[in-house]
Amino acid sequence: MSEGAAARRPSHAPPLLGIGQVLARLQPEFPELTPSKLRFLEEQGLVTPARTAAGYRKFSPADIERITVVLSMQRDHYLPLKVIRAHLEEIDAGRTPALPGVVDATAFRATAARYSREDLIRETGAGAALLDDAISASLIRPAEVYGQETKDLLTALAALRASGIEPRHLRGLRAAAERQTELVERAIAPERRSDPAGRARSAERARELGDRLAVVHAAVIRDLLDRRSH
C-alpha cells in the first residue's frame, strides 16, 4: 500500500502496524517471534502485509490474527508450515477444512487459551507443589502465562505422580532431550552456515527434526514396555 493509499484509508479504519509494533503486541505470547520470523512467514506466503512507498511492511488486524493462528498451530500442534499453509489456503478459498491433527476447529480454539499459574493449577488439579517440582526439575519453564502444551504436560505429571513417578525421577528425560537437541543443532548447522539470514527457516527445520525424534522416542519406549510385559 502506498503512502497515498494509506492516507486515503477511512478515518475509522484500524491503523496499520509496523514490524516493531507487531512484535510488541505478539511477543508476550510468542517470545520466539522476531523480525526475521515475520519476514520468513511472508516469504512462505502465510501473511501478506501491505507496503508503503518506501517499502516498509504494514500489518492489518487481519494480518495480526493470521500470524497468531500460524504461531499457535506451530506451538500447540507442532504442525509444519507447509501443512499450515495448505490449511489456510483452504480457508482462503472459502472452505472449512478440519484442522490437521485436531478433531475439530472448536478443539483448536480451546487450545488457544492461555493460563496464569493459578489457572493452570486449577484446570489440571495438579497442585502448586507439583508445578513447583516440575519447574525445579526443568520440565516446565516458569512463566507469567502458560499454554495448552504446559497444561497437558502438567496433567500428565499429575497422573504419573499418582503412580509414584515424581518430576525428580524424570530429570534424565531433560538430559536426553538436551542431547537430542544437540543432534538437531549439528544437523542444521550446514544450512545455517549457507544462509546466515535464514534463522526462521532453520528454526522450522529444527522443529521438524525434533518432531521426528519425538516419534522415535515414543516408539522406543513402547517397544521396551512391550518386551518387558512378555
TrEMBL record:
Keyword Signal listed: no
Domain of life of the source: Bacteria
InterPro entries assigned: DNA-bd_dom_put_sf, MerR-type_HTH_dom, MerR_fam
Pfam families membership: MerR_1 (PF13411)
GO MF term list: DNA binding; DNA-binding transcription factor activity
Keywords, alphabetical: DNA-binding
Residues annotated as domain HTH merR-type: 33-90
Protein name: MerR family transcriptional regulator
Taxonomic source organism: Agromyces luteolus
Taxon lineage: Bacteria, Bacillati, Actinomycetota, Actinomycetes, Micrococcales
